[in-house]
Amino acid sequence: MTLCSESLSAVTTTVGTAEDARRLAQAVLERRLAACVQVEAITSHYRWEGALHEDAEWRLVCKTVPQAVQGLMELLQAQHPYTLPQLVVQPLQASAAYADWVRQETQGAW
Questions:
Q1: Domain locations in the chain as residue ranges
Q2: What are the phi and psi torsion angles at 91 (to 5°)?
Q3: pTM
């Protein structure tokens, strides 16, 4: 497998319902801000406003190009149901073929 010399990015957020996860994933894909959005059911443990919480959440992992990250973050912030959403960006290395596909699917978004 040949790794692509140009990196990709993964933008991750969480929401409280499967409906919100679907809505955000569709908005991201319709605007071509990511090539793929993976949605996973998780359990989150956290402290909020001085109290410990344990909640079911859905994690969205958006695979995109670095040039689209700013627009993707802005869209997620604007449409997110949480007051303080988790918005995390991580660099990715991928196979050349997968990276080419991500670039092709996000073309024109940035």
A1: 8-106
A2: -75, 145
A3: 0.93
User: Considering all CA atoms of the chain, what is the largest pairwise distance in Å, rounded to the nearest integer?
Assistant: 48
Give the mean pLDDT of the chain.
95
CA dist., res. 109 & res. 95, Å (int): 22
Which SS3 state, helix, strand or coil, does residue 6 take? coil
For residue 91, give the H/E element and its range. strand 88-92
Q: Any idea which fold 8-106 has?
A: Alpha-Beta Plaits (3.30.70)
The band of 108, judged by pLDDT with boundaries at 50, 70 and 90, is confident
Summarize the confidence of residues 87-100 as an average pLDDT.
95
How far is residue 6 from each of residues 40, 51, 67, 84, measured CA to CA in Å? Answer: 27, 42, 12, 31
Residue 8: closest CA among 75, 70, 60, 69: 69
